[in-house]
Amino acid sequence: VILPGGPLPGALPEIVVADALSADPRAWVPQTADVSFLPLCLSLSQGFYVNLLRVRRAGVLSRHYHAQPVHGWVLKGRWRYREHDWEATPGTYVFEPPGEVHTLEVPGDVDEMITLFHVAGALIYVDDAGRPCGHDDAFTKHAAAAAHYAANGLGAGALASRVR
Ligand code: FE
Q1: In DSSP terms, which residues pair with 61 in a beta bridge?
Q2: 3-state secondary structure of 148
Q3: What does the mean pLDDT of the chain come to?
Q4: Distance (Å) from CA 44 to ligand 1 centroid
Q5: How far away, in angstroms, is 5 Cα from ligand 1 center?
Q6: Which residue has the higher pLDDT, 158 or 135?
Q7: How far is the CA of 6 from the centre of ligand 1 (A)?
Q8: Interatomic CA distance for residues 155 and 102, integer angstroms
Q9: C-alpha R_g of the chain
Q10: How many Å apart are CA 66 and CA 52, to the nearest integer?
Q11: Cα–chain-centroid distance for residue 141?
């Protein structure tokens, strides 16, 4: 029986991020000098995350492997994978199947690139020989955001509202 007028007992609350592109600049978590991310949904219970990835000044996201699928939707700027011959522009949707290995690169004439990514599982970074050398997942994103928000005064509440 579906109860009228409300969520079922035990259902988690929804996440609503109004006008995410105009978020408090402090909500963007630096990842490298040129790359930062805005967490929208960090699912510690299911092991995925949805974020806005922002790259400035012709940045690069190191070569990595996906064991689980990724969905991407470009909002601003342009980017390409060194391993593929197509370019992603605003409005482009990308499905990255498990097994993908790629290096995200933003061309030098793009001031700012923003793409929404839904990443299941982990990105496994690989070195030039293809050996695993690090990873990112909902937990590393959560830890990075927690440290950043603690340091810049946004606080734990801002992060908790994005975690399920
Ligand atoms: Fe990727």
Answers
A1: 104
A2: helix
A3: 94
A4: 19
A5: 40
A6: 135
A7: 37
A8: 34
A9: 17
A10: 18
A11: 8
